[in-house]
Amino acid sequence: MPSGDPGPDEFIHQFVPSESGSPVTLLLLHGTGGTENDLLGLGTQLLPGAALLSPRGKVLENGMPRFFRRFAEGVFDVNDLVLRTGELARFVQKSSTKKGFGKNVIAVGYSNGANIASSLLLLSPGLLAGGVLLRPMVPFTMDVVPDLSRVRILIEAGSRDVIVPKDQPEALAGIFRRAMADVTLQWHDAGHQITRPDIEIASKWLAGFKQSLST
User: Fold this and answer.
1) Residue range(s) defining the domain that contains residue 161
2) Residue 181 placed within a domain
């Protein structure tokens, strides 16, 4: 694992190669205060055998890693988000070449990680085959959306989430549907935390995605 300043297009990260030759790589994107280790166990639960690429966000907020800056809770620094999204996209592209995984990369993002995953999908079309977005918000609005007609997206929202306003998951799903993505929006009786039903739904969704690659 790299140490110190990883450079503009590099991230401190963990990579777990697939031991079973799975065609799917999960890009694991943690929430505020997380690290590159936080979602490794979740990734293994969600799609056993998949390769795992888990970077650590490079922005610090009161000492807590994040993937991009914000002005206040729910108020994003969009310029920084766009910059950091470009860095992350280049990191994924370089990692694919260096580590030998293919184009079937699914972002699994939680909270802050889900928000930059949404940004990746919208700003770097073709990089990701899909996304599992746990407790996301709308990262920004777009007048012209990319063509995401080959992309599958699962959004999992909590009906008792006090951090994500209730209109945000529906609005995000609307943006992706306007981009012609295959979108599933799943509501849970939950707050902002990841729950067992989240994991069960995401596992079934990912298994279906993997199965579709062989049909």
Assistant:
1) 13-212
2) yes
